Amino acid sequence: MTIQTRQLEYADGDLVLEGLLAWDDAVKDPRPGVMVSHAWAGRSDFEDSKAVKLAELGYVGFSLDLYSKGVRGSNTDENAALMQPFLDDRAMLQRRLLLSLNTMREQSEVDASNVAAIGYCFGGLSALDIARTGEDLAGVASFHGILTPPGNTEGNTITAKVLVLHGWDDPMAPPDSFVALTAELTGMGADWQMHAYGNTVHAFTKPEANDPDFGTVYSEQADRRSWAATQYFLAELFA
């Protein structure tokens, strides 16, 4: 096994985006692709490392870029300013997510008929929004995602299987939003499962997260459990 990576430029009109593709070059045939949607700071080493881990599992990992090539936030104010336009215009977010997904599908290493998406924080909201559009993909997984519905997908049918991995004490997605999501997903016909981790807040997969006042604290246990659940989920999707 040798994991290969390449930077992958793609465009939304005049805006140049740059993601990272990861695959095992020992596998010669196209294989399932799993897109990784980034947190509010933009594509980072964290998301790229998840793409590599997915490649180690036998998939093609693709760490997308929503903001544009080289654009990243370095503090909470910058991160919020980058994310907010997408929260204000969820249709724009959904369009760019589907562009990214189709870019992954077009790669020769990827079996375009077998794709999924995962995401972290803002990326968790993004993964859920892909499913909410009714896009034909195998499944999506949200890690400590924001759960607010977009307001433009009512009446759609979700064909993707949905996995939600959630810290029960997450101040950015409190229990009432978690319960509301179950009703939303059921109403849209989704095959869903939701795992809530007790005594766990936001950003529980991020080792550097250590700000209890902001509600972001790493949890080794929830990180391990959520990744194990995701591996099982992907294996089921692509069996």
Explain this structure.
- Helix content is about 35%, strand content about 25%.
- By secondary structure, the protein is α/β, with parallel strands linked by helices.
- It has one domain (about 5-235): Rossmann fold.
- It is globular.
- The two termini are about 20 Å apart.
- The model has no long low-confidence stretch (mean pLDDT about 100).
Give a brief outline of the structure.
Helices cover about 35% and strands about 25% of the residues. It is an alpha/beta fold. It has a single domain (about 5-235), classed as 3-Layer(aba) Sandwich (Rossmann fold).
Basic shape? globular
Radius of gyration over C-alpha positions, nearest whole angstrom: 16 Å
Q: Find the CATH superfamily.
A: Alpha/Beta hydrolase fold, catalytic domain
What order do the strands of the largest sheet run in, or round the barrel if closed? 1-2-4-3-5-6-7-8
Assign the CATH class.
Alpha Beta
Number of strands: 10
Detail the poorly predicted runs. none
How is the main sheet built? 8 strands, mixed
Mean pLDDT: 98
State the CATH architecture: 3-Layer(aba) Sandwich
Helical run tally? 6
Structural class: alpha/beta
Residues in helix, %: 25-40%
Find the CATH topology: Rossmann fold
